[in-house]
């Protein structure tokens, strides 16, 4: 690769990182508020309501930051905190489901995500569901993990969207 292409690639990466950082900083001060609402919210009895109100922000509950899913939700995505009507709270974990080789061999992990959908206007959890990602690779010499169930979560969110 020539020097010009490398420089161009670096500039593009810096711009993309800068845009993601700017977007994240817009929501940063609201994440604790979302968490406080979630901590007090309850899941209503009976059938879960399948409606998203307003635009969506996706929060990684482990890092208390925007979740990577936020950048994949397309038309549902809030571009400012003022647009947020629905918070998608994700608590994802890598669960040990086996080991490669012997009992002391490297771990085989499967990603699971507990997703809670929070209506800000109602201050209630309107739905929740657990998702499991793909199983880990069958063979690995250094440990392995399956993929996070992002597409399944995105499909689930689409069921809630109403124009």
Give structural attributes.
six-stranded mixed β-sheet; 163 residues; alpha/beta; single chain
Number of strands: 6
Report Rg: 19 Å
Number of domains: 1
Shape: elongated
What is the residue-mean pLDDT, rounded to a whole number? Answer: 83
| Uncertain stretches | 9-20
SSE arrangement, N to C: HHEEEEEEH
Question: What this model shows, in words?
Answer:
By secondary structure, this protein is α/β, with parallel strands linked by helices. It has one domain (28-160). Helices cover 29% and strands 29% of the residues. Strands 1, 2, 3, 4, 5 and 6 form a 6-stranded mixed sheet that branches. Strand 1 and strand 2 (65-66) form a beta hairpin. The longest helix is centred in the N-terminal third of the chain and has 26 residues, at 3-28. It is elongated, with a radius of gyration of 19 Å. Mean pLDDT is 83; it is low at 9-20.
Give a short summary of the structure.
This protein has 163 residues and is α/β, with parallel strands linked by helices. Helices cover 29% and strands 29% of the residues.
Blueprint (SSEs and pairs):
Layout: H1 3-28, H2 31-40, E1 55-60, E2 65-66, E3 84-99, E4 107-119, E5 124-132, E6 144-145, H3 150-160
Parallel strand pairs: 1-3, 4-6
Antiparallel strand pairs: 1-2, 3-4, 4-5
């Amino acid at each position: 690769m020539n020097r010009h292409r490398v420089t161009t690639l670096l500039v593009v990466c810096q711009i993309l990182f800068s845009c993601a950082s700017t977007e994240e900083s817009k929501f940063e001060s609201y994440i604790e508020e979302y968490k406080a609402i979630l901590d007090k919210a309850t899941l209503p009895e009976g059938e879960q309501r399948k409606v998203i109100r307003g635009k969506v922000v996706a929060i990684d509950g482990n890092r208390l930051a925007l979740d990577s899913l936020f950048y994949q939700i397309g038309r549902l995505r809030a571009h400012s905190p003022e647009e947020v009507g629905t918070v998608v709270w994700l608590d994802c974990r890598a669960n040990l489901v086996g080991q490669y080789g012997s009992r002391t061999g490297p771990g085989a992990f499967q990603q699971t995500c507990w997703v809670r959908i929070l209506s800000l206007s109602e201050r209630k959890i309107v739905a929740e569901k657990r998702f499991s990602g793909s199983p880990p690779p069958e063979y690995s010499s250094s440990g392995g993990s399956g993929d996070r169930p992002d597409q399944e979560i995105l499909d689930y969110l689409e069921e809630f969207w109403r124009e």
